[in-house]
Design goal:
Elements: H1 6-21, E1 37-44, H2 47-64, E2 66-73, H3 75-88, E3 95-99, H4 102-108, H5 116-121, H6 132-137, E4 148-153, E5 155-160, H7 161-167, H8 177-187, H9 208-217, H10 234-250, H11 260-268, E6 274-278, H12 282-285, E7 296-300, E8 313-319, H13 326-336, H14 339-349, H15 366-371, H16 376-384, H17 410-425, H18 431-450
Parallel strand pairs: 1-2, 1-3
Antiparallel strand pairs: 3-8, 4-8, 5-6, 5-7
Helix pairs in contact: 1-2, 9-10, 17-18
Amino acid sequence: MKRLLLIRAATAAALAAALVVSGCQGTGVRSSREGKESIRVLAVKNPQMVTLKQYTKKYFTSRTGITVDYTLLPENEARERMNREFARQDGTYDVASVSSYEVPIYSRNHWLAPLDSYAKADRAFDQKDIFPSLNRAVTGADGKIYAEPFYGEGSFLMYRKDLFRKTGLTMPRDPTWRQVASLAAKIDGTDGASGICLRGLPGWGQNLAPINTVVNTFGGTWYDMQWNAKLTSPEFTKAIQFYVDLVRKYGEPGAARSGVLEILADFSQGKCAMMYDASSLATSIEADGSTVKGKVGYVPAPHEETRRAGWLWTWAWGIENASKKKDAAWKFISWASSKQYQEQIGDTLGWNEAPAGSRQSLYSNPNYQRAAAAWYRQEYAAVKNSADPKNPGVGPRPYQGISFVGIPQFADLGTKVSAQISAAIAGKKSVRTALQISQKLAQDAVADYRTGGR
């Protein structure tokens, strides 16, 4: 996951440091110094969460009397803490930032409280305003909603309109991957730019995020309906070979070491003609510090055998099932995921800072339309028209997820497989060898899953 923006990173780091110095960081002790009630929130530490924490007292506690003790941790640490605390179910935390990866796992294990009754009773919350695609992503197998999106993102293809004009090329309105590869070959080297920037850095939330969308739309799947690993199938192999060839021939130098921050920096500095990645990156691409501001076009995620191919991601708020403060926890979630919070941040910091990709109404707000004029229509389409998390490819599969496999073992499995693919991108091994090793890893992971590994 699920998503730091490079150009805002320095500001966020300074803000985070200021919060720590001022003693605002969650201490692990429930506080009753202010208001009638206190809840504890565990969340991933990124710019949006830091901003939320900074304005909680002003916009939430002052109105409800509920204080919030935050524990903000880097993503890997936050996930490790969530897994441990939610599995124990001792109510240490009331709310946590869970992603579309955790929701199906946690809900299946009864670690999250269903939120349908709260949302229904809270008319101002307006559940129907949440993107339907995100509602599906945070819905458990039992049909109940287990988290409420704080912000979300899809994926799309970004391209340099100025370089395309210079070379006489035209970007299709709904490109296929084969069209993208052809365009990359023709534009590669123009003004010193690589044909396309793609993630190669190992990590299930790094190179596997875009790679899995390619696998899906080429007809591949990690497992069939009997949980047989399919990483050496013709479809999976074709997808990986395509991606590896594309980035090796026309990608950025050192692609095997390039993650989302690296390719964002390259694209923003004019070193790439195209980039396929998260819709949330448009804010940085169109920021004042970007050399390509105003020069970029946005089109849907490339597809091949499917109509849609984009990924879908969200950081959302879930309540620990063992929490004794569910009502107060819901009041926090209702505010943090609300239209009101978007307006508060938009009016205070600027509408570029409002958490986007979660509520449809934001995209009809004139303030946001002006701030995000270059990309808001495409961002809206990227989230609304992403692939279906429960059926993102050609055939049925036994797991939920677009850019991941919704089983606990995938965090480890995906990381190991991503390293194999990165080695192929670096030219250290063939795609065939990388996938043969990955096939065995996938078989072992599902064996653990099917024997009760949570």
